[in-house]
Design brief:
heterodimer; A: 241 residues; nine-stranded mixed sheet; two-stranded antiparallel ribbon; 6 helices; B: 471 residues; Dna Ligase, domain 1; 3 domains; six-stranded antiparallel barrel
Chain lengths: 241, 471
């Protein structure tokens, strides 16, 4: 069968390479074909390290939503390592992360924090490990990525906004808050400007996402409001640092 | 007043209880030290700790009298490890002298007899080991004070000419009890082995333990790890025979200088894997200062739980399933970071947001799971442990702020929800009512703010705080 266009051939080959590279541990689907179809392998790779930077609330929410999806799909606990775990269970529940299966680890010293995160990433029995790190050198990043690769646990690194590069990570996301839309007075559903800054096997891309709260009846989920083409006033692609 | 004297002072005729001025008059060259009962006690406990190198069963006397106090060691089943009872006593005496203590030692078949012989038999200064048959005769010759009696009973007995223990053994029990009380009969029974004497060891003596003594003191980490490779499998074997698993372990390091260092280890589930336990111990080895060397190590299974033997899989036939070892992860985290730093969120019965959740160590059972309460307005995923004061501007007293400053940045509010009024629990002091608002700024950042108190209640305007960050 002949390819219709060269660009699509390159893109499909890239996806194929990505899928083969990342397949051993499967992927986490966003539940939205717009995003899943773009990511190599059809979702965010499990058994890999992903960095999430950006606005404090948005990056926390985004990571909690992803970990919550994994937690629900696998039935396994999530480990959250932080110098100050000021997490609030009722609030996390709305993002789909069940605090009953969330292990909070307080590690005030950066060296302890990275050690605890690596220990968690080495444990195949957990769904995901989230670490709130201030800085990461190349060796530490590589170690974390290797640990995730071996065990199949997804690692999510929450970094300060000014973190320009995160060594070792397979993807890097920049999360920004976006004004919510609602015809009623008050706040509408949470919106994020999610920029995929770097991804092995795919070009950078941006989405405007909306999060539907998890309630007792519904699991909650992502919705894509707009892709960059619809929002010409926003930079569609930022150059990864 | 003199509290205690050493051998030289005693031979010069000085006794405890003598006023210091009199003592100085008797012996002008007297050297004195102020008494420090707490330091004496600490010293005794340290020494008892060190005695654990001979046997885990060590007890101290509750009272220090005349500057001296005893330590009991139950060496049943332990003496052969040191070359027999006389060798053990000689070793103990030599080491005590090395530390600079004057000690008298006696080994007898009951604690009471050992107490009596150590204090009242002159041979105890060189370490006295008695066989059961000679023990009786030796005890008979001791003064009745060796029975640990109150002074008035001792003088009473002496008045009757009953100055020696031997004089009491042949007497009828009834009249003796009637005149001198039940204590005398009990002490007599204890010293002769006719009645038991309950003494609690200072530390629990676990049934499963292992120890390793070194011919040459060791000081390097590699040597300690090699010693662990001997100790832990021996302990695990003993546990395996008893079908028990380890929950709490203590590794004790006895240093040449008499100090004892300990590493406590806890596990979430019973374990019997020596390699696994060694990894937990190894995390702490950096904290152990070997000093001039470690001469003995002990592994004590402080707490165990029933654990059935595991069938060893045939490695070639059955591929081992991947270990989903969350308990192992928790153990490693808790042993390095402390159990108080491995937490889970647990709900509490309170409507005040910061008190509605407690972060409990994982070992504690959670009372219930946090559930979504749709009736409540949304709560933020991140709640600051200390609400931070903000400079907020509101147009009306009961309206959400239009803008606020937090950590040097100004936020203009575009959307707001609220107020959600949360009154403090009435039984608390200076309880204030809070009005919570969920606000969103121009760029979409969402915060949880509250006004502390109501307008008109207090003279100055109520303050605003930022309590949480929404996703």
């Amino acid at each position: 069968m002949l390819p219709r266009r060269d660009t699509s051939l390159v893109a499909s080959l890239r996806r194929e390479i990505g899928r083969v590279e990342l397949r051993p541990h499967g992927v986490l689907s966003f539940g939205r074909p717009e995003i899943d179809g773009y990511l190599p392998g059809g979702g965010l790779a499990c058994g890999a390290l992903h960095a999430v930077t950006g606005e404090a609330g948005a990056r926390l929410g985004f990571a909690a939503c992803l970990a919550g999806r994994l937690q629900r799909q696998s039935g396994r606990p999530v480990v959250w390592v932080s110098a100050r775990p000021e997490l609030y269970g009722t609030g996390l529940l709305r993002l789909g992360l069940d605090p009953a299966r969330l292990l909070l680890v307080r590690a005030p010293r950066p060296s302890d924090l990275l050690w605890a995160l690596e220990e968690a990433l080495r444990t195949p029995g957990i769904a995901a490990a989230i670490g709130e790190a201030r800085a990461l050198d190349a060796v530490a990043g590589r170690r974390l990525q290797l640990a995730a690769q071996t065990s199949g646990v997804m690692g999510l690194l929450l970094m300060q906004e000014d973190a320009q590069s995160v060594p070792g990570s397979v993807t890097r996301w920049h999360l920004g808050a976006a004004p919510s839309m609602s015809d009623l007075p008050g706040l509408g559903p949470t919106r994020w400007q999610a920029d995929l800054m770097r991804c092995r096997g795919a070009e950078p891309k941006s989405w405007l996402m909306e999060w539907q709260d998890a309630t007792d009846s519904a699991a909650g989920g992502f919705a894509v409001i707009a892709e960059p083409l619809d929002r010409p006033h926003r930079p569609a692609i930022r150059i990864a640092g | 007043m003199i509290a205690a004297v050493n051998q030289e002072a005693a031979s010069a005729g000085l006794n405890p209880g003598l006023p210091l001025a009199d003592a100085r008059a008797l012996e002008p060259g007297l050297q004195t030290q102020p008494e420090d009962a707490a330091a004496d006690r600490r010293q005794l406990e340290d020494l008892a700790d060190w005695c654990g190198r001979y046997t885990p069963w060590v007890a101290t006397e509750p009272e220090i009298a005349d500057g001296a106090a005893g330590i009991w060691l139950d060496v049943t089943g332990a003496a052969h490890l040191f070359g027999g009872e006389p060798a053990l006593l000689a070793d103990l005496l030599a080491r005590m002298r090395g530390f600079g203590f004057a000690a008298a030692l006696a080994l007898a078949s009951t604690p009471a007899a050992a107490w009596a012989l150590a204090r009242f038999d002159a041979r105890a200064a060189e370490g006295l080991v008695l066989m059961p048959e000679t023990e009786r005769a030796a005890l008979a010759g001791l003064p009745v004070a060796a029975l640990r009696l109150a002074p008035q009973i001792v003088t009473g007995l002496e008045k009757f000419g009953l100055g020696r223990i031997g004089a009491l053994t042949g007497l009828a029990r009834g009249p003796l009890v009637a005149r001198f009380g039940e204590t005398l009969a009990r002490r007599l029974d204890q010293v002769l082995g006719r009645g038991g004497e309950p003494i609690s060891p200072r530390r629990p003596v676990p049934p499963h333990r292992a120890h390793l003594a070194f011919a040459e003191p060791i000081a390097t980490r590699a040597a300690i790890e090699a010693a662990l490779d001997h100790l832990l499998p021996a302990l695990m074997q003993s546990l395996e025979q008893a079908r028990r698993g380890l929950r709490r372990l203590e590794i004790a390091f006895y240093r040449v200088d008499g100090a004892v260092r300990r590493i406590p280890i806890g596990t979430m589930q019973p374990v019997r894997d020596a390699g696994y336990v060694k990894r937990l111990v190894a995390e702490h080895l950096d904290k152990i200062d070997p000093g001039e060397g470690i001469e003995l190590m002990r592994a004590l299974a402080i707490e165990t739980e029933p654990m059935l033997p595991r069938q060893v899989p045939l490695p070639d036939l059955v591929p081992a399933p991947p270990k989903a070892d969350i308990a192992g992860l928790v153990d490693r985290l808790a042993n390095r970071l402390g159990a108080a730093n491995v937490l889970r969120a647990s709900p509490c019965a309170s409507h005040v947001p910061e008190r509605a959740q407690a972060l409990l160590p994982l070992g504690e059972r959670a009372r219930a799971a946090i559930s979504a309460r749709p009736a409540l307005p949304p709560r933020p995923p991140r709640l600051l442990s200390n609400p931070e004061p903000i400079d907020a501007m509101a147009l009306l007293p009961d309206a959400p702020p239009r803008q606020f400053r937090w950590r040097g940045e100004t936020y203009r509010i575009r959307r707001a929800e609220g107020p959600e009024r949360i009154a403090d629990e009435w039984w608390r002091e200076d309880a204030a009512t809070r009005d919570y608002y969920r606000v969103e700024d121009e760029s979409g950042r969402r915060f949880w703010l509250y006004r502390d108190g109501l307008y008109g209640e207090c003279p100055q305007a109520p303050r605003w705080y930022l309590h949480g960050l929404f996703a």
